[in-house]
């Protein structure tokens, strides 16, 4: 929707943000801030931010499948685990980092396709339940394959180390690596969804019948979305391992899959920003509440979740968007052409 | 390879801005490298210790299935540190008296969260030492970082032998005896009976269960004792009935329950009874406490229960006049969460006593000086909750500080020491 020019600072702001150059400048500033952070932050902050990015990548993949294609998945933690174990195995055996990264992607794509082909024939609840089987199988399987996964104890490894010429500490280097890979993954997702694939997935979400009646191969697109989600889960897991240096079954409980879905909903579906906000919510909120009363973080997390769902059901990113357009929209009735939807008007009273 | 329409579409779309992305990423990385000289350096003095305070921190499961154990562990340590602080603090060997500040965070037994807690404690709160994190996985995840950072990682609330291997991880040390040594205590006790005995084993399907079994095998080596069947269970299993049934088929003389989950310990023993199998049952020390297991499970009428311990169980009537145990019970009165799991609480109390003893002998306000003190601990006065015959000596670079297990028999009220046990 293009906004009609308005008088005053609101109109100016709207025009400014609509401009391409402004967006580039804003993007560059954001990138500079993200790159500058590790030099002034403690290793703890760097670890947390890296975890947020890793989880955001995984959520972005889920968003393609759940947000855009409308297929609710509870299996993302399994792919997250495959990615993390690939990294763990690779680093434990002295492989170069790109090799284990590649392994993570390839394994997840293969596993994704294998699971997706039968799964996409199911719809709605049945699809969700099938994907639920993945994390349920994951933990016992990881314990059985202890020569590969370290069994119940897991793998503690040294991951990517900062090269000497960089003069960086390992945590700074790892953060930057995670940030760079995360940025590429977000850009790839943007590319994918901006065009025909994105439109096809949207149509499948709104009406599968309509989609197939205009010649969209629904099943194939669903397999594609599932595979993309799997690959993103794997990359997220690999990034997570790179930052944490540890992977074990205790980190891959079924609740992780559910938490990922929750984080996606809290952040807001069909939004890159929503994925980042959701990941930040999942990683940072428990750490903040844990400071106040250790052990009650789950309680605070649940309360915060309920508040978000009741007050802003479109997720935090949706709330930000709504807030932004309310800021730009003139509160006077003199410019009805630019008035936001009535719900927002009502809320601004 | 055949590419259906969506796939070729996807590939094309994917790669559209790839060059741009790669360019941006490498530019950003180059920019990052340009600022490399800003990297933070380490300060000259050791953090976490002032002339009046010393800060230590831990990571515990305070939510999730193990929350009660984690809370008891924290509460009992708090109780002892509160007592020490009420006396003015701990008088360290550099002549200064310091109050102990004890920080703790929840990890829900997820090692990835333990790592975050470690980073938070060491790099944000700047603790002097990391003290008694709970669990094998969490300690495993912390150990590599602590040794890389040269941060004392002391008295792990996890028995694995890997935490007391000074050659590999000089900044890490365990506390209680390993599961291996507990299993070995049973093995030696059985071997000392000097008659043919058959043993069936139920163990957890991980390194902990393997440790118990390895120890047992070592203890019975060369004797007339024979292991006739081994069954395993998983930590997330809700029952061990089928395993018990299959073990009952052997009619073995002894059932070694290397089971560390109280509900499974209770239901397993009861199931053996319903099958008409009444072997001598050797219970892992972790899950043999009178209040939490025997009374809850209504097992107190059995006269076939054995367990090897290293602490004077606070709920055992035989220790009710023991000064160490009486003081423990008195001090946790203001920290009632310690009662949620008496065994782990009391072990944590012993760990806290050992921590204070190590600080008392620390000759300089540095982490290295603390490690020197930790590695030279020896003596019976360090902790007063250890069983008679159990010693505390951290000079052995390959074993945790607490040595020895006393095999005990449950007489309906108390765990009574038996002759012929380890050491």
UniProtKB/TrEMBL annotation, chain A:
It holds the Pfam family BPD_transp_2. Its main location: membrane. InterPro entries: ABC_transp_permease (IPR001851), LivM-like (IPR043428). The chain crosses the membrane at residues 21-41, 98-117, 124-143, 173-193, 223-241, 261-285, 297-316. Keywords: Cell membrane, Membrane, Transmembrane, Transmembrane helix. It is a multi-pass membrane protein. It is found in: Cell membrane. Signal peptide: none annotated. This is Branched-chain amino acid ABC transporter permease. It comes from Nonomuraea antimicrobica.
From TrEMBL, chain B:
Residues 53-381 form the Leucine-binding protein domain. Keywords: Signal. It comes from the Bacteria. Residues 1-21 form the signal peptide. Belongs to the leucine-binding protein family. This is ABC transporter substrate-binding protein. It comes from Nonomuraea antimicrobica.
């Amino acid at each position: 929707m293009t906004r009609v020019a308005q008088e005053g600072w609101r109109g100016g702001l709207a025009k400014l943000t609509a401009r391409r150059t402004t967006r580039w400048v804003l993007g560059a500033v954001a990138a500079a801030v993200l790159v500058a952070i590790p030099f002034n932050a403690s290793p703890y902050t760097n670890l947390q931010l890296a975890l947020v990015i890793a989880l955001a990548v995984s959520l972005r993949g889920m968003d393609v499948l759940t947000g855009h294609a409308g297929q609710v998945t509870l299996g993302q933690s399994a792919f997250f685990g495959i990615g993390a174990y690939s990294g763990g195995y690779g680093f434990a055996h002295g492989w170069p980092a790109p090799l284990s990264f590649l392994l993570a992607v390839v394994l997840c794509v293969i596993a994704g396709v294998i699971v997706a082909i039968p799964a996409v024939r199911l719809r709605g609840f049945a699809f969700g339940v099938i994907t639920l089987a993945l994390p349920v199988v994951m933990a016992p399987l990881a314990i059985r394959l202890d020569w590969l996964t370290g069994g119940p104890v897991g793998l503690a490894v040294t991951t990517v180390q900062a090269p000497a010429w960089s003069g960086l500490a390992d945590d700074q280097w790892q953060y930057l690596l995670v940030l760079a890979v995360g940025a590429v993954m977000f850009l790839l997702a943007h590319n994918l969804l901006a065009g025909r694939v994105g439109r096809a997935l949207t149509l499948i979400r709104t009406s599968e019948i309509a989609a197939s009646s205009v010649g969209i191969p629904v099943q194939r697109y669903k397999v594609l979305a599932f595979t993309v989600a799997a690959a993103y889960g794997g990359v997220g897991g690999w990034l997570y391992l790179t930052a944490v240096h540890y992977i074990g079954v205790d980190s891959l409980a079924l609740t992780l899959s559910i938490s990922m879905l929750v984080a996606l909903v809290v952040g807001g579906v069909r939004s890159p920003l929503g994925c980042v906000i959701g990941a930040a919510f999942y990683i940072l909120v428990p750490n903040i509440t844990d400071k106040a009363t250790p052990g009650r973080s789950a309680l605070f997390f649940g309360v915060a979740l309920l508040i978000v769902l009741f007050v802003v059901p479109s997720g935090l990113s949706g709330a930000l968007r709504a807030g932004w357009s309310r800021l730009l929209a003139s509160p006077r009735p003199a410019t009805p052409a630019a008035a936001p939807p009535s719900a927002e008007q009502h809320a601004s009273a | 390879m055949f590419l259906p329409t969506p796939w070729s579409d996807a590939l094309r779309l994917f790669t559209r801005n790839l060059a741009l992305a790669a360019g941006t990423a490498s530019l950003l990385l180059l920019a990052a490298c340009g600022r490399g000289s800003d990297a933070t350096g380490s300060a000259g003095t050791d953090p976490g210790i002032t002339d009046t305070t010393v800060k230590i921190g831990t990571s515990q499961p305070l939510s999730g299935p193990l929350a009660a154990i984690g809370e008891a562990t924290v509460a009992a340590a708090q109780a002892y540190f509160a007592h020490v602080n009420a006396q003015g603090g701990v008088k360290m060997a550099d002549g200064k008296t310091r109050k102990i500040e004890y920080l703790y965070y929840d990890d829900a037994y997820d090692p990835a969260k333990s790592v975050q807690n470690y980073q938070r404690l060491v790099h944000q709160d700047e603790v002097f030492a990391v003290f008694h994190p709970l669990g094998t996985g969490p300690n495993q995840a912390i150990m590599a970082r602590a040794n890389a950072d040269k941060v004392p990682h002391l008295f792990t609330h996890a028995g694995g032998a890997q935490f007391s291997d000074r050659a590999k991880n000089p900044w890490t040390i365990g506390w209680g005896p390993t599961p291996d040594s507990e299993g070995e205590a049973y093995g030696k006790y059985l071997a000392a009976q000097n008659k043919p005995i058959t043993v069936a084993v139920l163990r957890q399907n991980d390194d902990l269960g393997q440790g118990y079994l390895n120890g047992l095998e070592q203890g019975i080596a060369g004797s007339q004792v024979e292991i006739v069947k081994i069954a395993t269970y998983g930590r997330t299993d809700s029952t061990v009935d089928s395993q018990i049934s299959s073990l009952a088929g052997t009619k073995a003389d002894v059932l070694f329950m290397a089971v560390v989950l109280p509900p499974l310990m209770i239901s397993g023993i009861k199931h053996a009874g319903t099958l008409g199998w009444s072997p001598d049952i050797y219970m892992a020390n972790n899950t043999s406490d009178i209040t939490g297991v025997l009374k809850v499970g209504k097992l107190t009428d059995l006269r076939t229960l054995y367990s090897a311990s290293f602490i004077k169980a606070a709920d055992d009537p035989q220790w009710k006049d023991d000064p160490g145990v009486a003081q423990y019970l008195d001090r946790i009165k203001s920290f009632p969460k310690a009662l949620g799991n008496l065994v782990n609480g009391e072990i944590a109390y012993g760990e806290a006593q050992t921590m204070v003893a190590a600080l008392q002998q620390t000759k300089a306000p540095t982490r290295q000086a603390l490690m020197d003190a930790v590695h030279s601990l020896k003596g019976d006065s360090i902790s007063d909750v250890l069983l008679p015959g159990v010693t505390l000596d951290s000079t052995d670079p390959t074993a945790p500080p607490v040595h020895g297990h006393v095999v005990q028999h449950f007489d309906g009220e108390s765990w009574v020491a038996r002759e012929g046990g380890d050491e």
